[in-house]
Amino acid sequence: MNQLTTIATGLRFPEGPVAMPDGSIILVEIAAGRITRILPDGGKQIVAEPGGGPNGLAIGPDGKLYCCNNGGFEYLDRNGLLIPHGQARDYSGGRIERIDLETGAIETLYKDGDFGCTLRGPNDIVFDAHGGFWFTDHGKTRQRERDVTGIFYAKADGSFLQEVVFPSENPNGIGLSPDGNTLYAAETYTCRLMAFRVTAPGKVDQTAGLGGAGIPLYRPAGYKFFDSLGVDSAGNICVATIGESGISVISPTGELVDFVATPDPFTTNICWGGPDLRTAYITLSGTGQLVSMDWPRPGLKLNH
Question: Domain SMP-30/Gluconolactonase/LRE-like region spans what residues (predicted)?
Fold first, then answer.
C-alpha cells in the first residue's frame, strides 16, 4: 500500500476535494450537509451549510464555488463505516448551487425543472476552457427503483442548462482530457468508464458509439464500483474505485496503467495540489478522512 498522510479525520462522508492556492482543501461533508475547508494542519472551517447532499465541487471563472447538490442520502453505520443508503427521507431535490467563499452565501443556480431538465441527484462537475461546466446526475435509489439519469452542460451565469447525454447508467465522476476534446464519465453500478467526443462547447458526437454518444473505455473485473475521477497531466483518468479500495489509473486508450490501493472501501475522490501538482488528495469517505500522498505524475491543471 502506498504511503498515505492523514490530514483530517472525523468528517461526515467527505467528497469533492478542491485544492486551493493557500494550501487548504475545500470539500463537502455530504452526510452533514456542509462544505468545509481543511487547513494544512488539519483544522476545519465551515464554508457554507447548503443542506441536502452537497457533492461535487469546482471553482468557476468568477472565483466562486459551484456545488452539485444531490438532495440527500440515508446512511448506514456498519462496521465502522458510514455508508450511503438510498434517497433521504427528507430529500430536498437535486440542484446546482453557487457559493461565495468569502461570505458563505448560497445561491441556487439551477434546480429540477429549470430549462425543462430533470435534476435528481447532481454528483460531479468539471469546467471547460469556455467557462461552462459539465456535470453528472447520479440519480437517487429507492427501495425498488432507481432513476434513469444523464449528463448535463450549463453556463456559469445561470442562463443555460441542457441534458446532453441521456440515458446514462447512474454517472458519477466526470472530467475532461487535457485538450478538452474528450469528456470522461464513470458509471457507478456498471463500473464502466465512458468516453465522449466533444464537438463544440456543450456538445458531443451523439453517433460515436453503438448505443449513442458514449464509447466504453474500460471496465474492471471483480466486485467494485466507480465513483469520482480526476485527470492527470499525462491524460490518464484516475477513477476512485469502491470495493477494491483505491484509485484505478486508466490511459486514454483504455489500459489500466496502475492501481493505487487505499485502506477505505469507500474511496471516492482525488484531486491534486501543491506547487507542482504532485500531491494527490484523496477522500476516504467511509471512515471520514482526507489523506494525501505523493503522486508519480502531476495532476492536470484545472481551467479555473
Answer: 13-284
- Let me know: does 46 contact 16? Beta carbons within 8 Å: no
Rounded to whole angstroms, how far apart are CA atoms 124 and 122? Answer: 7
* Residue 230: all three cell numbers together: 480526476
Question: Each residue of 162-178: pLDDT tens digit?
Answer: 999 999 999 999 999 99
Listed residue (2, 26, 1) closest to 14, CA to CA: 26
For residues 66 and 97, the answer to whether their CB atoms sit within 8 Å is: yes
Domains along the chain with CATH numbers = 5-294 (2.120.10.30)
pTM: 0.97
- Among candidate residues 149, 168, 165, 50, the one with its CA nearest the CA of residue 109: 50
Pairwise CA distance, residues 105 & 93, whole Å = 19
CA distances from 173 to 101, 176, 203 (A): 24, 11, 18
**Segment 239-255, tens digit of pLDDT:** 999 998 999 999 999 99
